[in-house]
Automatic annotation (TrEMBL):
Single GO term (MF): catalytic activity
GO cellular component, one term: cytoplasm
Top-level taxon of origin: Bacteria
Domain Condensation: 8-327
Gene3D superfamilies registered for this protein in UniProt: Chloramphenicol acetyltransferase-like domain (3.30.559.10), Nonribosomal peptide synthetase, condensation domain (3.30.559.30)
InterPro entries reported for this sequence: CAT-like_dom_sf, Condensation_dom
Organism taxonomic ancestry: Bacteria, Pseudomonadati, Pseudomonadota, Gammaproteobacteria, Enterobacterales
Protein known as: Non-ribosomal peptide synthetase
UniProt source species: Photorhabdus khanii
GO-annotated biological processes: amino acid activation for nonribosomal peptide biosynthetic process; secondary metabolite biosynthetic process
Length: 499
């Protein structure tokens, strides 16, 4: 198969979800249950469902040689699946609902469309149980809750004889307040609520994950760091400008770095990962604990000669993905507990799909491990590969590896290093940080240190030449200045390559 331009490999987090879906679908398919206690117009409900789903872009997957590829398409209409259980007692209804959902779980929704399955059970004359079933690849829990609330809002308006061309939503994170209004009453102990409680507890207990420069020094004797001062920039103004697009400071910095790296390398389709401590900076309603955010740049952003359009596209992408939480551009939230596997095991695990599934199932059963048993070490061997940065920047045979870019933001008030000068942030890394996620593949770490109205950047990476660090810093500085002041200074390709 010759990969078409509009078909892209999955990002690492997406691939993680895809693999886990194949191993244990009942755990990695999101299911949402909404109990409705009123008479319903089924045809109108189906129209509302399709009107909302067709408004959101989702991923269609295509499999080739055991590896999935993706493309963004408009949502196709779906047909509501309906089951009438009014003839059964309540206990029998619960059994039949469970049996029916198990049959849906067994179907390979990853390989067949539509990826979103919608249906409802009629339990009584004016009592229905609406459900949505979707893989993590299509959306995260927050976005699906918002989509569900949009469906119910639209149905309520339509049933009242009102047309609603544009669904007006308040702050997305207030969806629970909306869903509890008159139309919806949550089940007290449904699978969905159990899932929410589980993830909330998991995030709350987790410790922040930071890149460990000390570990890198042990693994790679020759490692250099580059630090540059951006304190002359008004960082508060930058964050205020980012907030115009509904961004947090973290995701905004990730966006700036991704544009800089994209511009520097002339390549698209690389993965940008942000690791950050959210517990003090973000409201608890929005996110709990540390999390990974990944942005997957699309081919239409790859024209180096039209940087203004590229930056505008990224802003628009963030605007859609973050403000409305629809995950239209593969913005996903996920927390992974990393495991450090022996090198031999890492090489032997993914010999083939069958062996991989069998071995992983055995590990899950014998070790009684949860979904976190799969680490990025395993994913690298099945990952079809994103386009690399210019191969000359890296060491021997680096063109065969994916290149990962990590962005950290560390506020001194959060880290407790207020007495240390900003010019030496490496001391914090060497003494406080711990993360064994990386396995020797080329990666770049960009760390922003903030103190009040000052900003310092540190660039690290294994197998990374100092010239590239200097070029990245210069490019990033230019991008930030352009973003802040609206300037569009265009460095040439030779200037970018030569730093």
């Amino acid at each position: 198969m010759t990969q078409a331009v509009n078909w892209l490999p999955l990002s690492e987090t997406q691939l993680d979800f895809w693999l886990l879906n194949r191993l244990s679908r009942e755990q990695y398919l999101l299911d949402f249950f909404v109990e409705i206690n009123q008479a319903m117009d089924v045809d109108m409900l189906e129209e509302c469902v399709n009107q909302v789903l067709c408004k959101h872009n989702v991923f269609w997957l295509r499999q080739h040689r055991f590896l999935p590829f993706q493309k963004l398409v408009a949502r196709c209409p779906v047909t509501l699946q309906k089951w009438d259980l009014t003839a059964y007692a309540q206990e029998e209804q619960q059994v039949r609902i469970s049996q029916q959902l198990e049959q849906i779980y067994d179907s390979d929704v990853i390989a067949n469309l539509p990826m979103v399955q919608v249906g409802f059970f009629r339990l009584a004359e004016q009592k229905y149980l609406l459900f949505l079933l979707v893989p993590h690849l299509c959306a995260d829990a927050t976005s699906m809750q918002i989509i569900t609330s949009e469906m119910l809002y639209l149905y309520r308006y339509r049933s009242a004889g009102m047309e609603m061309n544009e669904i007006q939503m308040d702050e997305p994170y207030q969806f629970e307040q909306h869903l509890e209004e008159e139309l919806l009453r949550k089940q007290q102990y449904d699978k969905y609520q159990q899932s929410v409680s589980y993830w909330t507890a998991l995030f709350a207990q987790a410790d922040p994950l930071w890149l460990s420069a000390k570990w890198l020094i042990e693994e790679h004797d020759d490692i250099t760091s580059f630090s540059g001062d951006l304190s002359y920039l008004d960082v508060n103004t930058i964050f205020a400008k980012l907030n115009e697009y509904g961004l947090t400071k973290y995701l905004g910095l990730v966006g700036l770095v991704s544009v800089a790296m994209h511009r520097l390398s002339g390549q698209s389709n690389f993965v940008v990962t942000a690791l950050f401590n959210t517990r003090t900076e973000l409201p608890k309603k929005r996110m709990v604990g540390p999390a990974y955010r990944e942005l997957y740049l699309l081919p239409e952003f790859s024209d180096d000669d039209k940087f203004t359009r590229t930056l505008a596209s990224v802003k628009e992408q963030f605007d859609k993905g973050m403000r409305h939480k629809h995950c239209e551009e593969a913005l996903t939230l996920y927390l992974i507990e990393q495991k450090k596997w022996p090198r031999l095991v890492r090489k032997l695990l993914p010999l083939c799909e069958w062996g991989f599934k069998l071995l992983t199932k055995t590990m899950l059963r014998n070790a009684r491990l949860s979904h976190k048993v799969l680490s990025y070490y395993l994913l690298y061997y099945l990952y079809p590969g994103c386009r690399n940065l210019v191969a000359s920047w890296f060491g021997k045979s680096s063109s065969h590896y994916p290149v990962e870019l990590e962005v950290n933001y560390i506020d001194e008030q959060d880290t407790g290093i207020t007495s240390s000068p900003l010019s030496h942030p490496h001391e914090y890394f060497e003494t406080k940080c711990a993360d064994d996620r990386f396995s020797g593949f080329p990666f770049i770490s960009v760390c922003f240190f903030g103190r009040g109205n000052q900003l310092t950047i540190k660039i690290d990476g294994n197998d990374l030449k100092h010239e590239l660090k200097q070029s990245l810093f210069d490019t990033l500085k230019t991008v930030m200045e352009e973003f802040l002041h609206g300037r569009n200074v265009q460095p040439t390709r030779n200037q970018i390559k030569n730093g």
